[in-house]
Amino acid sequence: MDEVKESDTSRHFLRQWIEEDVAAGRTGGTVVTRFPPEPNGYIHIGHAKAVCVDFGMARLFGGECHLRLDDTNPTKESDEYAENIKNDIRWLGWQWSGAGDGKEPGFYNASNMFDTMYQIAENLIKAGQAYCCNLGQDEWKEYRGVPEKPGRPSPSRDTTPERNLTIFRDMRAGKYADGEWCLRAKIDMASPNIHFRDPVIYRIRHVSHYHLGDKWCIYPMYDFAHPIEDALEGVTHSMCTLEFEVHRPLYDWVVDRLDEMGMLVVRNGVKIRPQQREFARLNLTYTVMSKRLLLQMVTEGQVAGWDDPRMPTVCGMRRRGFTPGAIREFCDRVGVTKVESESDTALLEWCVREELNKTAFRRMAVLDPVKLVIENFEGTRTVVKPNNPLDETSGSREIPFSRELWIDRADFQENPEKKFFRLGPDREVRLAGACIVKCVGYEKDADGKVSLVRCTWDEGSWGGNAPDGRKVKGTIHWVDCATGVKAEVRLYDRLFTVPNPLQDGSDQFLKYLNPDSLKTVTAYVEPALAAAAPGDRFQFERTGYFCADAKDFRPEAPVFNRTVTLKDSYKPIT
Ligand code: ATP
Ligand code: MG
């Protein structure tokens, strides 16, 4: 697990809100937050943002953050998703804590509370605060009306509690089909807040649950389940995204009912009333984030899976070579606000680059190889280069050097342009860490492409400087032909060609897929790279940041993914 360092010192509104509650003694001594993903997909950078807020606030106040799988909607959930969510959160550097509802501290399944939720629903019915309704979907909407005008009461609104209890129990017993009846909270059909107009709190769904099988054919709605989950776990601060702001009165209504039922957790003599606050969701340019759309790309084969390095999923970013620290730094820099906005993918990449520049070992790799022969060079020598010149403790590596080398095609020009200081006919260049060579000729293949560059070396220049002190401007990287290793290098670019792929609606986003988001090349890399471990990250000198692919890398057939290019004009506003 990556260690989370103290970072976000900004006093955003959520932090102030929690500070006030702590000061007023409303937390019973422990701030408790939760991250409540639905196990119906892999988590993405937007979730990572919520993870950083939920776990980050708990950490800042010395409290606990629960991981709660919000598995109240049985249709699309699975253990595979659940396991990956856990894995991804740990990788991001966070660990849930608290009591938990089973063997694992801090871990909860909302579905473990179904019995209690059912009981609460019966309590509401008995108290005349909920009733069964058999309006069809369309009728129900029509009765509910529009915000400007009061809605109409359902014909079943005043059914007796006894009759409601019978119907509800029959719903549970499976006597009705999906949609035939539902349970509604009896609140206020005239409320300007549409979510307050007798919202549905239980519905019939004859669907197996991934953990509970066919135990239930009625399932609680999110607006009912979520405050109950928070309350029963003793959560003090429930943070979610802005779209839930209009649901907050309903959240509070449910908490009030639980209070009346004496079901709120008491901690150190303080009754814990969970509270909800909302912050803007994270949006990112050049990608899409809804799980539904990500799933569509996976099932249609537009990408190679949830962990395709082009995906904005946490597992995709991991495979791409992004670091947990850079993702957290990005989330911090984006900040917590109440205004929806779009964050720049370039900022995320900048964070990745900043970190890798400090930590990644340097290696040489030639992605578009052309052979260079040093005609007057005999034998072999060894070049020693630091693993990372910015980190004195990083040590160095030995690189074999001999007569035949690979260099990058772009480092040789037959007719050098202005300001091109690398190789060309009769020109000198420095081979990084080795010596100065001069081009004395070149050959081309049948297609007119340069196939061989002939050079001689200045025998006094070993180490890199000319004996007579003359200046040689250009330095290029190289890989020794005799010992270099052939590797597959996957050059990833943005998945979409426009900042907002949803600009024409979510059924049109695929037309903006970037056809060049993946290019695969055969490269030669210095021998040390064959000894990389899957997932290891490197700077390929002068080229970019790369990582050994976690799935496909083999020492005898190395595969590297481009994480980010070396440079970008992007500069964050500080
Ligand atoms: P999606 O819309 O991508 O399918 P979701 O909101 O349905 O996501 P959940 O599993 O229900 O996914 O979300 C878990 C938590 O993550 C919620 O608290 C939700 O508010 C938060 N979250 C989801 N997407 C984002 C985002 N883009 N930015 C910030 N928080 C997010
Ligand atoms: Mg959801």
Provide key terms for this protein.
3 domains; single chain; binds adenosine-5'-triphosphate; alpha/beta; 25% helix; elongated; seven-stranded mixed β-sheet; 29 strands; Ribosomal Protein L25, Chain P
Task: Please characterize this protein's 3D structure.
This protein is an alpha/beta fold and 574 residues long. It has three domains: 6-281, 3-Layer(aba) Sandwich (Rossmann fold); 291-361 and 487-565, Ribosomal Protein L25, Chain P (Beta Barrel), CATH 2.40.240; 370-470, Ribosomal Protein L25, Chain P. Helix content is 25%, strand content 24%. The strands form eight sheets. Strands 14-27-28-29-25-26-15 form a seven-stranded mixed sheet, covered by helices on one side. Strand 27 (537-540) and strand 28 (544-548) form a beta hairpin. Helix 2 packs across helix 11, helix 7 packs across helix 8 and helix 11 packs across helix 12 (345-359). The chain is elongated, with a radius of gyration of 31 Å. The chain starts with 12 loop residues before the first helix and ends in a 9-residue tail after the last strand. Bound molecules: adenosine-5'-triphosphate and magnesium ion. Residues 36-38, 46-47, 49-50, 240-241, 281-282, 289-291 line the site of adenosine-5'-triphosphate.
